[in-house]
Amino acid sequence: MKKILFLLALLLALFPLSASAIESNPFSVLAGDVLQITVWKEDGLDREALVLPNGDITFPLIGTLKVQGLTPAEIQYLVKKSLEKFIPDAFVTVQVKAALGHTVSVLGQVAKPGEIILSHRMTALQALSQAGGLTPYADESEIIVIRHGKNKDSSLPVSYDKLSSGNNLSGDVVLEPGDVLVVPTETLF
């Protein structure tokens, strides 16, 4: 195991992370995520770090770092640079141990309403399936995804009746962290 870590450290020293390598990883850290930060040969610095609601983590020797919106590779680079004055040539790895900040909420007429962790690319139809499907009282034609944007909120329709029949598959909304999937109750009149 030590040989593998040494080889990884050597590779990173010879071929440091480029901007294109950092940009190729679209996953960005959000509040609520749990990171595993490891500094090779520094057992006292190996720890889990919870990304706080303000987007910060705390780490020994460094203090507070703003990490929300950064990729794990960018955080790895930031921790390495911040540790340089204490540990020159530190070999740092950052892994997302739990993506608990990457959730969507499913509300209304589904069998199991609640939060779903986005562990992979997920569409509205997949989230409805994970929530146990629709109840008999669900209004299939009025399902929406509420998306909170930086400047404005939006409402995206989900045509469940068309999707479930195999028509208009392009209308299946790809969910983003923070989305709220709402399944209203069908009106009787």
CATH topology call of the largest domain = wza like fold
Total count of strands: 10
Tell me which CATH architecture of the largest domain applies here: 2-Layer Sandwich
What is the radius of gyration?
21 Å
In helices, the fraction of residues equals 10-25%
Distance between the termini: 68 Å
Tell me the quaternary state. Answer: single chain
Considering the protein shown, what is the CATH homologous superfamily of the largest domain? wza like domain
**H/I helix tally:** 5
Total domain count:
2
Strand fraction: 25-35%
Q: Regions with pLDDT < 50 over 5+ consecutive residues? A: 4-15, 17-25
Helix-and-strand structural type: alpha+beta
Most strands sheet? 5 strands, mixed
Write out the strand line-up for the largest beta sheet, numbering strands in chain order: 7-6-10-8-9
CATH class of the largest domain: Alpha Beta
Q: Overall 3D geometry?
A: elongated
What is the averaged pLDDT score? 84
In short:
The chain is an alpha+beta fold. It has helices at residues 2-14, 19-23, 72-83, 124-130, 160-164, and strands spanning 34-39, 47-50, 56-59, 63-66, 92-98, 103-108, 114-117, 143-148, 153-158, 180-183. The protein folds into two domains: 2-98, wza like fold; 103-183, Outer membrane lipoprotein wza fold like (Roll).
